[in-house]
């Protein structure tokens, strides 16, 4: 199906409003208890488009567009919607705040590795990187929304609620940033260890000895190693930086699944410490996870977005924390991008599926995670055509292997990427009770998001065309997985609709996939907001046609008497002048359009000349 961001987003909004405001009151639902991740994802389905896309704004009732108001009619009219959102956001901040500060519980997103065991309440309340990262995006969207809406309402009670919510949101933002800093880790290993051998095999691919891998690793990561040891201090154990100075060691960096055990507290001002409460003890082993690293990398850029800077959403202390996170963001991107492309002849990323080094898990999902980080890095440094072409091929292979663009075989294990998803053992959770796991079933939505991001990055017509076709195929697959009956109609996820041979998915509707589809549509809006790719060949044709048209028009004006201003001939001359002027303006940005305008001028000039020839013949 064709990607139509506005229409698709309105359909999602209508479904969210129908489900969450079923009886005119917001209903969080009670399935499996509360999860700060799921609740944040649900709110972002509304707030993210509303703060990223101008026509979807909800903070100014006077500018709310009619189709947006119709889509959210269950939430009230244009003046009621922002007021209702303030109450819902306030409820979210209240419910996800404990006695000692904001909480980031994974809730029912956590599960026991052994299905016969039950997780304790303490385990379900453990914070998770998904919630930290999602809270950054949600809090920034909320602060921006409140800043605009406060100037549009005069009701005293609403203004007081806005001020209170702004303080609560700012405190949650700070707590999320502090937690994300304390979840970052660097895992240093000896090449002779089991994990070191796994990393050596991944990078050497059986063609390089351990000595050769270590030599290349030292050369490629020398500057990055120095940057980490000298600049990364907040939230990182000093023993790690000491080990990292040994260049005979390999290392991985990124985010663990939660606060790292032994991670030092972040020093903040007394007022901030009071707002965010006591910083909890870490529980996660100091091991980076690809999935949680990608999640963190998705949230951090919002801290330095144009909107955040223009609206001045961060305090001075938050800006310092944001700078520290930005440094980790850049380091992590550079590291995994270099790992993915370690060998120029054949990238490790091109050997699908990717195998993790510690737990030796193997899946196309991990290949997609590494590709996602590579996409971040390609966007940051503006990719070469070779990097982009090879990454496009990886995306196409992942879509095929994930049975999105190809037919599944009988009892195809690839369907497990979508239902039940790929499970990650959460190392360190066993200290609190039964060992926990985290399951990711958003392979298709993540693949669509990265494909659209690559499409926006590409300035190569052939590559962009391949990516657009792939994105349309993935969206077609995802759109077929919407729920068609019962709770959550129009939302996700009904995997059974695409793979009828496999069992129906159990559990609540997936706010994770719904939110990621929403992100994809926002990214697609950004794609279509760009100027089209400029074709050198089309520019040459347009320039030639425009030159000929301008010359012939000048000749026409020189040889023929000036027409009366209000005559049909006069109107036609002014129209030709306007088209020529517009064509010149568009020549650099839209050469195809400029070419079309020039051809239209040439056609009209020819018709004028032919008409005079015909009339002259008749007169003779």
Give the number of helices. Answer: 22
Biggest sheet strand order reads 3-9-8
Strand element count: 9
Using only C-alpha atoms, the radius of gyration works out to: 28 Å
What structural category arises from helix and sheet content?
Answer: mainly alpha
Specify the biggest β-sheet.
Answer: 3 strands, antiparallel
Shape: globular
Account of the protein in words:
This protein is mostly helical and 620 residues long. The chain is 57% helix and 5% strand. The protein contains 22 helices and 9 strands. The strands form 4 sheets. Strands 3-9-8 form a 3-stranded antiparallel beta sheet, with no helix packed on it. A two-stranded antiparallel ribbon has the order 1-2. Strands 4-5 form a two-stranded antiparallel ribbon. Helix 21 packs antiparallel against helix 22. The C terminus is likely disordered.
Features:
620 residues; two-stranded antiparallel sheet; mainly alpha; 3-stranded antiparallel β-sheet
Secondary-structure blueprint:
Blueprint: H1 5-20, H2 36-52, H3 66-71, H4 80-95, E1 97-98, E2 101-102, E3 110-112, H5 121-124, H6 129-149, H7 156-183, E4 184-190, H8 194-204, H9 210-231, H10 238-244, E5 249-255, H11 270-276, H12 290-299, H13 306-311, H14 316-340, E6 354-355, E7 362-363, H15 364-381, H16 385-401, E8 422-425, E9 436-440, H17 443-457, H18 461-479, H19 511-529, H20 536-559, H21 568-586, H22 591-619
Antiparallel strand pairs: 1-2, 3-9, 4-5, 6-7, 8-9
């Amino acid at each position: 199906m064709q990607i139509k961001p506005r229409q698709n987003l309105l359909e999602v909004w209508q479904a969210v409003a129908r489900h969450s405001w079923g009886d005119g009151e917001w209903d969080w639902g009670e399935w499996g208890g509360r999860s700060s991740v799921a609740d944040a994802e649900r709110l972002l389905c509304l707030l993210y488009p509303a703060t990223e896309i101008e026509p979807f704004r909800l903070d100014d009732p006077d500018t709310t567009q009619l189709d947006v108001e119709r889509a959210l009619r269950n939430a009230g009219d244009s003046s009621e919607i922002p007021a209702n959102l303030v109450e819902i956001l306030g409820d979210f901040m209240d419910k996800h705040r404990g006695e000692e500060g904001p909480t980031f519980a994974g809730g029912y997103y956590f599960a026991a590795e052994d299905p016969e065991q039950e997780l304790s309440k303490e385990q379900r309340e453990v914070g998770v990187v998904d919630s930290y990262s999602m809270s950054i995006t949600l809090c920034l969207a909320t602060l921006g929304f409140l800043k605009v809406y406060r100037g549009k309402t005069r009701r005293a009670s609403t203004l007081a609620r806005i001020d209170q919510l702004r303080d609560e949101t700012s405190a949650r933002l700070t707590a999320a940033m502090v937690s994300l800093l304390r979840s970052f880790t660097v895992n240093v290993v000896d090449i002779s260890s089991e994990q070191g051998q796994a990393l050596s095999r991944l990078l050497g691919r059986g063609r390089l000895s351990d000595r050769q891998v270590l030599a290349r690793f030292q050369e490629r990561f020398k500057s990055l190693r120095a940057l980490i040891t000298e600049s990364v201090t907040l939230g990182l154990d000093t023993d790690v930086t000491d080990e990292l100075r040994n260049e005979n060691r390999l290392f991985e960096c990124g985010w663990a699944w939660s606060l790292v055990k032994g991670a030092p507290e972040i020093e903040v001002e007394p007022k901030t410490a009071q707002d965010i409460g006591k910083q909890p003890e870490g529980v996660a082993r100091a091991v980076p996870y690809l999935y949680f690293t990608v999640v963190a990398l998705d949230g951090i850029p919002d801290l330095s977005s144009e909107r955040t800077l223009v609206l001045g959403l961060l305090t001075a202390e938050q800006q310092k924390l944001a700078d520290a996170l930005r440094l980790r963001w850049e380091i992590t991107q550079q590291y995994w991008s270099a790992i993915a492309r370690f060998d120029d002849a054949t990238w490790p990323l091109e050997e699908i599926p990717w195998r993790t080094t510690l737990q030796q898990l193997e899946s196309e999902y991990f290949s997609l995670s590494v590709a996602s980080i590579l996409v971040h890095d390609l966007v940051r440094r503006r990719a070469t055509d070779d990097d982009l072409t090879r990454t496009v091929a990886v995306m196409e292979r992942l879509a095929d292997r994930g049975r999105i663009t190809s037919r599944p075989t009988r009892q195809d294990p690839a369907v497990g990427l979508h239902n039940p998803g790929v499970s990650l053992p959460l190392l360190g959770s066993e200290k609190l009770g039964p060992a926990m796991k985290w399951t990711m079933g958003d392979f298709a939505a993540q693949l669509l998001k990265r494909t659209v991001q690559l499409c926006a990055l590409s300035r190569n017509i052939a590559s962009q065309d391949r990516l657009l076709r792939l994105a349309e195929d993935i969206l077609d697959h995802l759109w077929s997985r919407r729920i068609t009956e019962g709770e959550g109609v129009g939302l996700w996820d009904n995997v059974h609709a695409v793979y009828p041979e496999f069992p129906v998915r159990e559990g609540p509707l997936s706010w994770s996939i719904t939110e990621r589809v929403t992100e994809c549509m926002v990214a697609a809006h950004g794609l279509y907001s760009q100027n089209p790719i400029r074709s050198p060949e089309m520019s040459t044709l347009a320039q030639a046609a425009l030159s000929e048209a301008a010359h012939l028009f000048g000749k026409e004006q020189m040889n023929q008497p000036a027409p009366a201003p209000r005559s049909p001939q006069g109107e036609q001359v002014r129209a030709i002048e306007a088209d020529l002027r517009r064509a010149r303006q568009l020549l650099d940005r839209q050469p195809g359009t400029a070419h079309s305008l020039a051809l239209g001028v040439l056609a009209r000039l020819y018709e004028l000349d032919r008409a005079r020839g015909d009339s002259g013949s008749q007169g003779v």
